[in-house]
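Q: What changes when zinc ion is included in the input?
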Amino acid sequence: MVIIEGTALITGIKGTINMVKSLKSSYDAKTITQAQSDILEHLFTLQIDALALQEKHFAIIHEKEELIKKVVQFEQWEKTESEYELQEIVSGTFVYTSKNTQQFGIPTHWLCTQCWDNRKKSILQRQYVGHMSKLICPRCKFSFNG
Ligand SMILES: [Zn+2]
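A: The predicted holo structure follows.
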């Protein structure tokens, strides 16, 4: 889309240059004045087109930067995924656990499956209420007795 518009802009500039070239061969003052007016009008149109194209160019650069960020996040998440595995800790209750906590030097912990599905790493926290305890996700507030 931007390439087509850029090509149209270049064609417009070439058209203006041709108008100037044809003006050189004309000696009639009225014709020259009319041609100058046409050229100015043409230049204003080209300037507006160039600004619109520049705006789209900046939008594409911004979009490209956002896509690069997403690719980096995606690659980081792939690394995280490779370090964890789904485990059933109680019948019907699943968490993600680190495959090898000793290798990475981090304590054993469990991750919330709901946040995991949203590509978020959220460590479940134990919360005590009297003699009972439950695990709660600080991000999505999912909890279960455990
Ligand atoms: Zn969660």
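Observations recorded in class: The longest strand covers residues 84-90.
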